[in-house]
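Saturday, quiet lab. Running sequence design on the C-alpha cells for the scaffold JK sent over.
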C-alpha cells in the first residue's frame, strides 16, 4: 500500500495546523504499519525539515515555480494528481482538507479547522479593510472544503465537535466521518527551565494570566480584557499577556479596547514566539485563558497543562470537549463569571492544585502514536473495502 501526503504548504518559519500535524505524525506513522510506503511531497525551501524521516518515506520535490501560495494551489490541483497516478498511489492523505476533486486515488481528508464553516459568525468583527477579499476567500474555501469532503473516501475529524459540523454543513452521512484526536508534541511535555521562567516573570513584572494564539475576533480576547477591568480584578494587580500574530489587523482593536478600559500595563501584547520559548511563558503564568468560540482541536490548553498551569476555557465549540474536567469552563460573554474563574485559579490553591493534577492526567490520554494507529486502521479498512468491491 502506498500513501501520499503533501507538505507543500509548510513554511520553515511559520507554525500552523498542517505543520503541527505533519511534524508530530510523520515520524510515528511507519511503526503503525511498516508495510506502508509513503510518498511525501515537499518544496525546495522546506525539504530539510523532513530530512530525518524513516526510510519508508520517499521525498518528492515539487517544481520550483510552485513556491508562492497561488502557484502552490495550481501545483496541487494540476501537477500533483498526475504525479500520484504515475507513482500508483493507493491513497492520498489530505492534511489540509482541500485537494483536487479529480485525484486518481482514494482520499482521506483531515478536517482540523472550523473557521471556514463559521466565518459568517465572526467576519463582521474584523476591521473593514480588505473585507470583500477576506469574505470571498473564506466562502471559496468553505465551498471547496464541502466539495472535497463529499468527494473523499472518508473524512477524519479531529474532535466530535468537528464531526458534527462536517455532517451538518456538508451533508455527509455520519458513518463517513471518523474522529481521530490530535495530541501534544513530545517536545512540549518537557518542563521549562527555571532560569527561563524567572526571566519571563521579571519581564512582565507582576503575576499574569496568559493567552497564546492569533489575535482574532473569534478568540474573544476582548471579553478577557473586559473581565480584567472589573474592580475585583484590578485590586489583585494581575496582568493579561497576549502572545500571537495579529490576524487581519484585529490587534489594533484589542489595543484600543485595552486603552478604553484604562488597563495600562495590566494588558501586554507580545508578538508570536517560537514554540521553544513558549514553555517558559506557560510555566510563569497563573493560568491560561482560552475563551474562543471557534476551535477544532486547540493544543494550547495541553501545552499549559504540561507546564502545571490551570486553564480557564470557554464553553463553546470543541473547547470543553478537549479540556474535559481539567479546566474551568465558563461562558465567555459573562464577564463576571470569567473574572470569578480568573480569581479561583489565582487565589484558591486547593482548586488550583486539583486542576493541575487533572491537567497532567488529561494530556496523558492523548498520544501521537495512538493517532497514527487510528489513521492507519482507517486507511487499511478503506483499501479493504475498495478491494472487496472489485
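Result came back. Writing it out in full:
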Amino acid at each position: 500500500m502506498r500513501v501520499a501526503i503533501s507538505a507543500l504548504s509548510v513554511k520553515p518559519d511559520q507554525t500552523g495546523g498542517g505543520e503541527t500535524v505533519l511534524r508530530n505524525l510523520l515520524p510515528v506513522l511507519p511503526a503503525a504499519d511498516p508495510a506502508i510506503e509513503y510518498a511525501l511531497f515537499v518544496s525546495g525551501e522546506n525539504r530539510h525539515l523532513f530530512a530525518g524521516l524513516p526510510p519508508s518515506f520517499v521525498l518528492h520535490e515539487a517544481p520550483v515555480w510552485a513556491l508562492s501560495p497561488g502557484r502552490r494551489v495550481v501545483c496541487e490541483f494540476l501537477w500533483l494528481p498526475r504525479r500520484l497516478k504515475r507513482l500508483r498511489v493507493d491513497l492520498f492523505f489530505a492534511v489540509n482538507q482541500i485537494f483536487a476533486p479529480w485525484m486518481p486515488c482514494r482520499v482521506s481528508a483531515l478536517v482540523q479547522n472550523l473557521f471556514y464553516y463559521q466565518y459568517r459568525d465572526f467576519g463582521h468583527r474584523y476591521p473593514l479593510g480588505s473585507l470583500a477579499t477576506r469574505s470571498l476567500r473564506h466562502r471559496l474555501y468553505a465551498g471547496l472544503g464541502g466539495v472535497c469532503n463529499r468527494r473523499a473516501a472518508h473524512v477524519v475529524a479531529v474532535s466530535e465537535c468537528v464531526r458534527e459540523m462536517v455532517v451538518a454543513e456538508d451533508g455527509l452521512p455520519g458513518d463517513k466521518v471518523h474522529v481521530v484526536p490530535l495530541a501534544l508534541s513530545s517536545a512540549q511535555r518537557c518542563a521549562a527551565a527555571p532560569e527561563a521562567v524567572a526571566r519571563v516573570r521579571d519581564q512582565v513584572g507582576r503575576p499574569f494570566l496568559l493567552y497564546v494564539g492569533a489575535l482574532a475576533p473569534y478568540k474573544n480576547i476582548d471579553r478577557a480584557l473586559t473581565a480584567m477591568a472589573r474592580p475585583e480584578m484590578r485590586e489583585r494587580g494581575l496582568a493579561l499577556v497576549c502572545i500571537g500574530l495579529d490576524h487581519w489587523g484585529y490587534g489594533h482593536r484589542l489595543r484600543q479596547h485595552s486603552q478604553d478600559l484604562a488597563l495600562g500595563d495590566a494588558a501586554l501584547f507580545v508578538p508570536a514566539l517560537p514554540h521553544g520559548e513558549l514553555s517558559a511563558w506557560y510555566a510563569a503564568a497563573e493560568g491560561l485563558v482560552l475563551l474562543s468560540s471557534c476551535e477544532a482541536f486547540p493544543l494550547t490548553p495541553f501545552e499549559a497543562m504540561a507546564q502545571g498551569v490551570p486553564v480557564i476555557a470557554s464553553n463553546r465549540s470543541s473547547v470543553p470537549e478537549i479540556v474535559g474536567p481539567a479546566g474551568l469552563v465558563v461562558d465567555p460573554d459573562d464577564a463576571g463569571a470569567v473574572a470569578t474563574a480568573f480569581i479561583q485559579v489565582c487565589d484558591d490553591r486547593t482548586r488550583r492544585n486539583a486542576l493541575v493534577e487533572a491537567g497532567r492526567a488529561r494530556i496523558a490520554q492523548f498520544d501521537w502514536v495512538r493517532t497514527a494507529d487510528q489513521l492507519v486502521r482507517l486507511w487499511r479498512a478503506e483499501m479493504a473495502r475498495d478491494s472487496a468491491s472489485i
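Notes for JK: The longest helix spans residues 131-151. The radius of gyration is 22 Å. Ask whether to fix the surface positions before the next round.
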